[in-house]
Model the fold of this input.
Amino acid sequence: MIWEFNNFKIDIDVTDADFIENVENSGYDKISDENVEGMKQSQIYRNLCENIENVFSKIFGGESTEKLFGGKKSAKEHCFALYSLLEVINKENEQTTKEVEAKQKIVEKYNIK
Done:
């Protein structure tokens, strides 16, 4: 399936073990763990953007962040990009699970014992 955000477009396969491993190892699930107490709002946004850029770099490679964000440090845009990708992965996983379960039922129906 094609995932597209801003000027970045890529064909992703959520059943590809290497792709999913990159997602799993990207640190996307640790982004909100940072202690922001006493930080200026601008620094909180900057850190969030850098963390999300690191996630995309680990998943798609270093050049992806420039294409995705064009050098901007918009926390909203960075979050939307990450949410968009994760949403697509989750939906594709659900669809794949349904397809596999349907095929299993067909196999079980015609299983000769």
Summary: The longest strand covers residues 2-5.
